[in-house]
Design brief:
This protein is mainly α. The chain is about 45% helix and about 10% strand.
Length: about 400
């Protein structure tokens, strides 16, 4: 732990020494005022002596006219600067919050022209060691660190473009892969068990998620006007999704990408579960107040209780149902939908179009391993190609 010790000099002036033992040796940094010493000590306590000292030296050696990384990030993300365009205000607001709790918290006081690759590397190591906001028993996910790093890299690229520095120190930074949560692929029997414990009010909603692979924001934005029962099979048109507004509230916007605008066919039992249609502009799936469904509230009050019951071995045995082996999220119904299509022989480009993936690479990366008989087919192919290449050698007659 760092400490502050005042010391009187021969000329009567007082300096404030920040002291900390690092690797068995006492480190010291002097300040002419107690405020500067306290700020440095706080940085040492949060980031460690090496990072805090690097920031202090960079600030002391920088040109006064150069903004700090915190100041430049704020300017880059400000819509008035015109540097970051083509994004929703809710997305921009999310970028600001992400920057504040990540690289700005660690490197923000450094002038933007003094940040080095080593500084970025120290930040990444620090960031990867931070606890997850959602799972306190785990560190922050590798995907989140990559998202933070992407914002930093874009900010630094803008600094290069505006002549504040010659290069981007965040370019090609290696991020640990970490442990990514694997999607849960429900069997048909497990899905039936889960559906059994979903309250009747939300049965049709869960059926639509499982039968279409829609994302949450897409499904909850559907209106009766998006449903077409005059064709066979019936279809829904997905051309909007709920997004966060600048104030944090929900706002209807375009889906995730251009390929996300799509028409998806529906089985007739889903149409039966939906019941009589309402006005064309009315949401199909609403909460008890008539508004759109919130993921967090639905997860806590509907989904999690149903999953808990569906995972109860004794209860499932009593009901004659197959219990869940893992705890799925609502998004795992999208994964399960894709797995059922692939198991049934649907080509991956068809699955891509139905799920609204922008690129077939995404579909292959997430679901390619589920293709039926793929390993058998490839083994047969290579076996047929290389047949007859094994040298035939005469075996020695064993001696008696």
């Amino acid at each position: 732990m760092a400490s502050i010790t005042p010391r009187a000099l021969a000329d009567g002036k007082v300096v404030y020494r920040v002291l900390q033992r690092v690797d068995g040796r006492m480190k010291e940094e002097r300040f002419t005022n107690v405020k500067g010493a306290e700020q440095f000590r706080a940085k040492v306590e949060k980031l460690g002596w090496v990072a805090a000292k690097a920031m202090l030296d960079a600030r002391r050696n920088s040109r006064p006219s150069v903004p700090t990384l915190a100041e430049w990030t704020a300017k880059y993300l400000d819509p008035a600067s015109g540097m970051l365009t083509g994004i929703e205000e809710g997305t921009r607001d999310g970028y600001k919050r992400a920057a504040e709790r990540s690289f700005v918290a660690y490197l923000g006081e450094m002038p933007v022209d003094t940040v080095t690759k080593a500084d970025v590397g120290r930040w990444v190591a620090w960031q990867e060691a931070q606890p997850s906001a959602r799972r306190t028993d785990q560190n922050i996910s590798a995907k989140t660190v990559r998202n933070y790093h992407a914002i930093l890299s874009a900010t630094m690229t803008a600094a290069v473009d505006h002549g504040l520095r010659p290069d981007n120190p965040a370019h090609k930074t290696r991020i640990s892969r970490g442990q990514k949560r694997e999607g849960v692929f429900l069997s048909v029997d497990e899905y039936a068990t889960l559906l059994h414990f979903i309250p009747d009010r939300y049965t049709a909603f869960i059926m639509l998620l499982a039968n279409t692979g829609c994302r949450w924001g897409e499904a909850t934005a559907l209106t009766w006007g998006d449903l077409n029962t005059r064709v066979n099979p019936p279809t829904i048109r997905i051309d909007k999704a709920w997004k966060k507004s600048a104030g944090g509230g929900p706002i209807l916007k375009h889906p995730k990408s251009s390929k996300s605008r799509r028409t998806v066919s529906l089985p007739h039992d889903v149409i039966d579960a939906l019941g009589a249609p309402g006005p064309a502009d009315q949401l199909i799936f609403r909460n008890r107040s008539g508004g759109h469904l919130w993921m967090g509230r639905f997860r806590d009050s509907v989904w999690n209780p149903a999953v808990t019951k569906a995972s109860d071995l004794a209860l499932c045995e009593l009901e004659g149902l197959a219990p869940l082996r893992r705890r799925p999220t609502p998004h795992d119904l999208r994964h399960s939908h894709a797995s059922w299509l692939i198991a049934g022989g649907a080509p991956l480009p068809f699955v891509q179009a139905r799920l609204g993936h922008e690129s077939i690479t995404t579909t292959i990366g997430v679901y390619g391993h589920l293709q039926p008989d793929a390993h058998v087919q490839m083994a047969d192919m290579i076996g047929a190609t290389l047949a007859g290449t094994r040298p035939m050698r005469q075996l020695d007659t064993p001696q008696r």
